[in-house]
């Protein structure tokens, strides 16, 4: 039996007490890699708490990489988890007195974001809705190979030589053409090639943010944006993104709340995703886009428009981007090949006013000199041959089928009290479970059934709603979508039946999580 | 005639007054893109100052990108130079009142580093010793193509899919083998793949540095390291790197001065290049390496060992790296394919204690998710086939010939008062001109002869010595090395003859530059 003691009268939530005590047991060596820990139900009985409490503690420890669940075999202390000891206080000076105490030297005392652990390879045959990423099985390998062949025959050694921070000229040329074809008349001086949107956010943070600055983020938001703002030691001001049932006809970031935030704070930057927002899938209506631009202009706050999903327009009316509507030069648009083409190549770009690009180029050079040229040259050739547009068109068709299959399966298998967004494009559907449910706990049960998703907790910078989750649908084929949603529906119904008797205890736990 | 007025009694150096007045004329529109400005000799006569004063002002304006010289045609205001106006005070709010005043929003008010402008493509037939980079004409294109073919046939779509922040497994495997073959027994948990040493420095800065922290750099140093420390708003403490004539048998970073610096400051990190230091080419003796490690251990200051040139060992005894000598786990070694193989691919790595790698991996993920996988897979295959070692061996042989040709030419053509380092490897030779000479001015004359190099000014964070310069020899073949050095020798002799009469005025100018 584990030496655990929870104090129900403490102001520290029970699941936090449990989490911290378990972590200490690992750090002290009482629990060692490979040790099995009790099932959540078993430990809950033993401690006299609700299973949700244990499940929440386990979910956090799993996201830290300290424990790992195996379907049908139980939960274990992870091998290598001792390397995570930097979350603990620095160890005493070593006996030899010489070794550097690295943990005491880190600039930040922050623990790891859990999303990439959540995204670790699932067991075979399991169905993962965790990530918003393309389906690699659909990548046109023959055509990519032909493009690379052509590059290697034609380009000569310059692609392997130190290149320009601006980006590979061939790709810049193709990209400007491609953007013009979409209705964005960017010039050479408005374009910078980057390693993708995560780097673009990093460059923007370096260019504009100082510690203590206020940044407006969507809430919920792309976790990478939250990480960037936290890393720059800024104040993240989350403005609610509303679903169609919360604000019919006015979904997406709440421009009224945004205005109040801008009026009350000296905001330095806002980061928004008007098209097929990650994680909610919402599309910002035209009127809200105009209002957003007007606010940016009035309060002199630049907008970073995350345009990464916009090209995956699947149905309904297509909106002009903020950049296309921008008459006041307030928008920096970040974009990438990663969602509509090939994320493994790590190539994206920024479209911005010339003086902003000039500054970002300088920062990009100081960050990693330039983006890899082989990947850029391959994408340039792929685009030049018309294959990029062809691939995009095919992806749109397939992803629409998957979205429709998902919606159909949700209609059939989800309890009435469940709601979900109806995105016009992108890669994710946002689900709201009945009040009182915790998606992190449900994930534990779902995994036992071989299905996984991303609980809402990873996307909130504040006002976390535990009963939300994201389903990334583009990486799962229709058969698995139906199988996965069927299993999710069953898990949810089972839990609902169990809850009917224990609503009060569930309520307590939910409050503790807020 | 330009409206310029220099005040000789001012405490502001004349060349700074001239530089700033010329810059103002551009910003105010009195000088416009395409306008020709007087030759330095002509303007010097007109203003009654020494030509060096004008040359220094022009050199700075050129490095800012404001003016550009054309061989045989004179010097002109650059097109696009108005986009550099962020070095000037923010312009008044625009008439429409809506456009964001981007310049007023940048986090830093710093102007651009000039090295990349210096590195811009030189006119055809000119000989450039500017950069420390490999010779692309020697890249084994057939073998690279075969490696890529094999990758595309064998690997499947996973290289184009979102990958692991750790790096592509195939490359990690090959690299650990490769390092073991060199005598470094790193394990999986000690390795992180990055986009090269510039990114590795950026990640280290994010992991360890807070504004105001003190960082020890070599002086002179790799400019990218200076930029990283400045960008992190740290205090750069430059410790002198000494040449063999300054400290026979004890060249490289001055460990005595280092000890004094560590004793007097709470230093957070030191960045050193023990092997074939950029820019001086010096090798740190074994005894100094041991002392450095002892100091790091005693003062608990981690060492970042820049190992990027070490594999280009051309002659003489090979030293064990700091990482190999490190018994106290104080060294983070940054390394890259960029110098001994192919910089355009942007792939490097870090070898460090497991808890440091764990932290850096987290930061790498927040910075750009992961390094591009196509480049990694190509390098893995190239290495697996034994081609990397073969290429390295060939490069060593060729670069040694070039180094010997350079030394031979310097012996023949340089005046007696000139000194230069005798590196055992790497890519650069460091030259000291006779006292009173300014390498930036000499560059202007050298360019007229179609030869260029990197003046020492770009490498100093403090105590700048104007009479130093760096010759990167690996990108120039032997015939051009002889031609280039012959021209440099002639330029220098001409200038020396002119100086014999005007030593006093030169002296004044030299003091103003310190």
Q: What does this protein look like?
A:
2 copies of one chain form a homodimer. Chain A has about 525 residues and is an alpha/beta fold. Chain A folds into 3 domains: about 80 residues, Orthogonal Bundle (Arc Repressor Mutant, subunit A); about 130 residues, Aspartate Aminotransferase, domain 1, CATH 3.90.1150; about 240 residues, Type I PLP-dependent aspartate aminotransferase-like (Major domain) (Aspartate Aminotransferase, domain 2, 3-Layer(aba) Sandwich), CATH 3.40.640.10. In chain A, about 40% of the residues lie in helices and about 15% in strands. Chain A is built from 17 helices and 17 strands. In chain A, the strands form 4 sheets. In chain A, strands 5-12-11-10-9-6-7-8 form an 8-stranded mixed β-sheet, with helices on both faces. In chain A, strand 9, helix 10 and strand 10 form a beta-alpha-beta unit. In chain A, helix 1 crosses helix 3, helix 7 crosses helix 12 and helix 9 packs parallel to helix 10. The longest helix of chain A has 27 residues. At the A-B interface, helix 5, helix 7, helix 8, helix 10 and helix 12 of A face helix 5, helix 7, helix 8, helix 10 and helix 12 of B.
């Amino acid at each position: 039996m584990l030496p655990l003691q929870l104090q129900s009268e403490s102001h520290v939530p029970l699941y936090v007490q449990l989490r911290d005590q378990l972590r200490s047991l690992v750090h002290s060596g009482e629990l060692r890699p490979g040790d099995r820990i009790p099932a959540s139900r078993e430990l809950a009985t033993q401690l006299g708490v609700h299973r949700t409490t244990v499940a929440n503690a386990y979910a956090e420890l799993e996201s830290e990489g300290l424990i790992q669940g195996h379907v049908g075999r139980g939960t274990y202390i992870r091998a290598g988890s001792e390397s995570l000891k930097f979350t603990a206080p620095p160890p005493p000076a070593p006996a030899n007195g010489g070794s550097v105490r690295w943990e005491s030297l880190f600039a930040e005392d922050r623990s790891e974001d859990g999303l990439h652990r959540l995204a670790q390879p699932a067991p075979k045959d399991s169905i993962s809705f965790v990530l918003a990423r393309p389906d690699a099985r659909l990548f046109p390998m023959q055509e990519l190979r032909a493009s690379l062949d052509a590059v290697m025959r034609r380009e000569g050694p310059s692609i392997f030589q130190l290149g320009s921070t601006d980006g590979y000229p061939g790709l810049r040329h193709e990209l400007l053409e491609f953007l013009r074809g979409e209705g964005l008349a960017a010039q050479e001086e408005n374009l910078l090639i980057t390693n993708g949107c995560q780097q673009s956010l990093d460059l923007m943070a370096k260019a504009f943010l100082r510690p203590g600055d206020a940044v407006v983020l969507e809430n919920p938001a792309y976790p990478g944006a939250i990480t960037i703002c936290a890393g720059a030691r800024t104040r993240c001001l989350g403005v609610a993104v509303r679903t169609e049932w919360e604000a019919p006809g006015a979904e997406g970031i709440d421009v009224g709340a945004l205005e109040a935030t801008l009026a009350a704070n000296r905001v330095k930057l806002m980061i928004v995703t008007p098209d097929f927002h990650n994680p909610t899938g919402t599309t910002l209506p035209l009127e809200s886009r105009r209002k957003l631009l007007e606010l940016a202009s009035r309060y002199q706050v630049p907008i970073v428009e995350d345009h990464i999903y916009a090209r995956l327009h699947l149905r309904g009316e297509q909106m002009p981007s903020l950049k296309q509507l921008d008459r006041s030069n307030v928008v920096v648009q970040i974009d990438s090949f990663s969602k509509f083409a090939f994320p493994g190549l790590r190539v994206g770009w920024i479209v911005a006013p010339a003086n902003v690009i000039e500054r970002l180029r300088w920062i990009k050079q100081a960050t990693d000199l330039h983006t890899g040229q082989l990947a850029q040259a391959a994408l340039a050739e792929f685009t030049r041959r018309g294959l990029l547009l062809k691939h995009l068109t095919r992806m749109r068709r397939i992803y629409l089928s998957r979205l429709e299959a998902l919606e159909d399966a949700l209609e059939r298998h989800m309890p009435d009290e469940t709601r979900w967004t109806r995105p016009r494009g992108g890669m994710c559907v946002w689900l709201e479970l009945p009040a009182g449910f915790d998606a992190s706990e449900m994930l534990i049960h779902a995994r036992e059934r071989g299905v996984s998703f991303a609980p809402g907790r990873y996307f909130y910078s504040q006002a976390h709603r535990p009963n939300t989750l994201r389903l990334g649908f583009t990486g799962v084929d229709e058969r698995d979508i139906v199988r996965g949603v069927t299993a999710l529906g069953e898990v949810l119904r089972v839990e609902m039946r169990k809850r009917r008797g224990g609503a009060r205890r569930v309520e307590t736990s939910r409050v503790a999580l807020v």
